[in-house]
Amino acid sequence: MHKRVTVVGIGYVGLPLAVALSHHVEVWGLDIDQRRVDELKAGHDRTGEIEPDRLAAAPLNLTAQPAECPPSDIYIVTVPTPIDGDNRPDLTILLAATRTVAGMIDPARRPIIIYESTVYPGVTEEICGNEIVTITGLVRGRDFVLAYSPERINPGDREHTIDKIIKVVSAESPEVLDEVAALYGAITTGGVYRASSIKAAEAAKVIENAQRDINIAFMNEIAQILERMDLSVWDVLAAARTKWNFLPFQPGLVGGHCIGVDPYYLQHRAQELGYEPRVVIAGRAVNDGMAHWVADKLHSQRSEKAGRVLVLGLTFKENVPDLRNSKVADLVSRLAAHGHIVTVHDPLADPGEAFHEWGLTIDPDAFDARYDSVVLAVPHRAYLDGAEDLFASLLAPGGTFVDLKNAVEDRSMPRQADTWSM
User: Fold this and answer.
1) Cβ atoms within 10 A of the Cβ of 343, count?
2) Residues in CB range of 311: below 8 A, 6 or more apart
3) Got the DSSP string for 149-214?
4) Residues 189, 191, 192, CA angle at the centre, nearest 5°?
5) Is residue 258 flagged as an active site residue?
6) Counting beta carbons within 10 angstroms of the beta carbon of residue 344, is it exposed (0 to 12), middle (13 to 18) or buried (19 or more)?
7) C-alpha 392: how far from chain center
8) Higher per-residue confidence, 19 vs 158
C-alpha cells in the first residue's frame, strides 16, 4: 500500500474519499477554498456528507496551500466539471487542478495521478496527461502514470456511500491498475471493477447519468401528455409499477452536478467525432424545459392572474444543501416573468450561495405570511414533518398548492385549497 495520498478538491466527492482513505494511508486534503478548509478543521462539513464525529476521528491533513503538501505517491483529482452557458464542457477547474498537481510531482516517486471528475472519454489521457507533460517536461509512464476511477457520490444518500459501492477502476498499465485496485479495495466492501481502459471507465460514468436523464425525461413527457388528458401521472405510475419489469422512474426537475450535465459531455465528444446524438439531447431538452412547464401551468391554473407565490425548497434535491444546477431557480425566474411576486424558502441552502448564483434571496421569515400559491418544489423533511399545520398556515383562502414530487398526503391540505401535482 502506498504511504501518502493527496486528494485535490475536498467537496462532496473528495471529502468522503479522503476520510475513508485516511484510516489506511496518510492523506492530505487540498482545496483552494480557505473557508472550506477552516470549517473542516473546526469539525463542520457544510455539505452534510460527513458527520462531525466521523470528521473528528479521521486523521486528515487539510490545507489550501499546495506548498504545504509533501510529495505524494498518489494524487486523486475530485474537482467539479461543469458546463458553460452554451452547454459545452467547461474543463477550467479540472485543468487548474491538473496544473496544481503538475507542480507537486516528484518524479522519483513515479506518482499515480487518478482522476475521479466526470469527463468525456479521452480527457484524462489526451488533455490532462498532455497538460502535465507540457508543464513539467516529464515523461508519462516513466515519471508519472495516469488512472481513472469515476466518482459515484449521490449527495444525501446514506445507503450508497463510498465504503459500500462497487468502485470502477482503470489505469494505463496492468501493474498500475493493480495498485489502484488495491487502494480503492481497501475502503469499500462493494469491491472494485477493473475497466478495460481509462476511456471505457470515462464512458461508463457519462452513460450512467445520461441513461437516468433519458428515463426521467420520458416520465416528464408522459406527465405533460397525461395532464392534457386530465390524468394524474402518479395514478398511472402506481398502476404501471405492478408489472414486474416496469422501471420505477418518476417525473421531476432534474438538476445537480451530474445528471443535468453529463449528457452534454457525451454530446460534445460525439459531435467532435461527427455524430449528432438525438435521443440523449432530446431528453435534455425535455428536462431543461420542465421548470417552465410547471410555472406556466401554475400561471394558467390561477387564471393567468399574478399573485404571491411561495416556493419551498431551492436545492437540487431533498434533504441536502447542494444548490448546484438546481432547476428550481428556473421555476422562480419563470414565475417572476409571469408577474408573480415570488418568495423563496429553504432551511438547508446557503443564502449567500443562492444570491451569488442567481440573485435570489432566501427569506427566513417566509412563514409569517400567506400566499396565493405555495409550490413544494423540494420536499425536505422539515416541510413534511407537521405538513398539515404548515401548509394550512401558508395558503390564503382559495389558494393553490403545488406538490411537484407528490410527497404530501391529501389529508395534509386545507379542504378549500386547490391542489395539484404533475
Assistant:
1) 20
2) 328, 331, 332, 335, 342, 343, 344, 345, 375, 377
3) ------TT-SSS-TTTS-EEEEESSHHHHHHHHHHHHTT-TT-EEE-SSHHHHHHHHHHHHHHHHH
4) 150
5) yes
6) buried
7) 33
8) 19
The DSSP element (H or E) to which 182 belongs, if any, is helix 174-185
Q: In what order do the strands lie in the sheet with 60-63?
A: 60-63, 26-30, 4-8, 74-77, 112-115, 145-148, 167-171, 192-194
Tell me the one-letter amino acid at 248.
P
CA distance 78 to 7: 7
Q: Select which of 258, 344, 395, 408 is catalytic.
A: 258
According to DSSP, the residues that pair with 146 across neighbouring strands are 113
How large is the average pLDDT for residues 290-305? 93
| CA dist., res. 144 & res. 112, Å (int) | 6
pLDDT at 270 over 70: yes
CA distances from 50 to 43, 316, 360 (A): 10, 19, 28
Instruction: Report the candidate in 105, 107, 200 with the shortest Cα–Cα distance to residue 149.
Output: 200
Place of cell 445528471: 259
Average pLDDT over residues 348-363: 96
288: Cβ contacts below 8 Å, ≥ 6 apart: 260, 327
Please state at what angle helix 328-337 crosses helix 290-301, rounded to 10 degrees. Answer: 40
Measure the CA–CA gap between 170 and 289, rounded to whole angstroms: 36
pLDDT at 413: 59
Phi, psi of 71 (to 5 degrees): -55, 135
Give the angle 24-29-33 at the CA atoms, nearest 5°.
160
Q: What are the strands, taking DSSP E only, across 230-358?
A: 308-312, 341-345
Mean pLDDT of 216-223: 97
- 171 burial (CB, 10 Å; 0-12 / 13-18 / 19+) is buried
Q: Helix (H, G, I), strand (E, B), or coil: what is residue 211?
A: helix
DSSP E strand boundaries for 9-121: 26-30, 60-63, 74-77, 112-115
Residue type at 131?
E
pLDDT in tens, 372-411: 999 999 999 999 987 768 888 999 998 999 999 999 876 5
What pLDDT, on the 0 to 100 scale, is given for residue 178? Answer: 97
> Mean pLDDT, to the nearest integer, of 156-172?
90
Q: How many residues does the chain have?
A: 422
The mean of the pLDDT values for the chain is: 93
Instruction: At 244, list the grid cell.
Output: 414486474
| Strand, helix or coil for residue 147 | strand
